[in-house]
Amino acid sequence: MAKIRITKAYKFDTAHSLPGHDGLCKNIHGHSYELLVTLIGEPINDPRSPKYGMVIDFKDLKQIIKGLIIDEIDHSIILRNDAPPALLKEMKKNFDRILLVDYQPTSENMILDFAGKIQKALPRNVKLHHLKLWETVTSYTEWYAEDNP
User: Fold this and answer.
1) Among 118, 140, 138, 113, residue whose Cα is nearest residue 129
2) Is 142 labeled as catalytic in the residue annotation?
3) Is the confidence at residue 1, as pLDDT, over 80?
4) 21 is catalytic
């Protein structure tokens, strides 16, 4: 049977800072991101299956991405987990959604994080083909499974 790629788009807003950066991005700033998730697989060929003819139900894909990424990251401030404790304490007084990560929160590192989470959560018969993360309307990063065996 033929392999089919399906793609679903997600939008979220997030703030971050890049400590040590040599420009304005060292300051807390935000982006309206768009994440495109492309999967590849063979459509289910069992007429008795409620998912007959689908690689994966878009509703099921939405639940996976929403649960793993969007619910946690949307309207959050992403900071490295080595941020000064006094800064974190002060920020927690004013902000409810602070996400600490163990990497510099660039779009490149975020997409690597997303790829790892998504790959672990997909059904056996479906593979992550690629991700595209738009940080601005003119800038995006991409991750391809074929580049990351």
Assistant:
1) 118
2) no
3) no
4) no
